[in-house]
Design a protein that fits this description.
single chain, alpha+beta, Cyclic Phosphodiesterase, Chain: A, five-stranded antiparallel β-sheet, 4 helices, 27% helix
Amino acid sequence: MAGAGSSAAIRAFVAVLLDAATRAALRAQIESLRRAAPRVAWVAPESVHLTLKFLGHVDPALIEPVSSALQGALAGAPPFDLEILGLGAFPTVSRARVIWAGVGAGRDAVAALAGRVEAALEPLGFARESRPFSPHLTLGRAREPRRNERLATLVADGAGRAFGRFRVGSASLMQSILGQGGARYSSLSSVSLSGH
């Protein structure tokens, strides 16, 4: 990872942030899932996002070049509508390690946006992902995956549930700060999609 050697490295990622209505719908869903699986580490609803690329530990000196590279690459990307649709789990619903919300409309557009991010950051030393981009929003992580029929039923029942649709007009370079209550996120910069 680029810049991983610095002791003051920043854990960073590039993401699409949600609108308030979609976040509220996901908040209600997370609360329902939490009751079924209290041992799962659920993401705070205000922190739910769609990751375009995880950068890992980044030297603070690279933050400005990363922001500039994103600016150049994303300025030509057109804004688009994104639908958050359905629940699922990795690797399976019955033995969920990660519980997620998926993407419906806008899937191709957000994948193209992730491709622009990959291409822009590779020259700065950030290796391309080896796996194909799979757009999703992590809602919770099981520390010890185990059978939970109630959780499996809720996730299966939510496979077609719509959580919202909103206009994506920007992408954000984010900082992840690990703490006792889980990760907190703050925006380092935001890049508008102008479509020019």
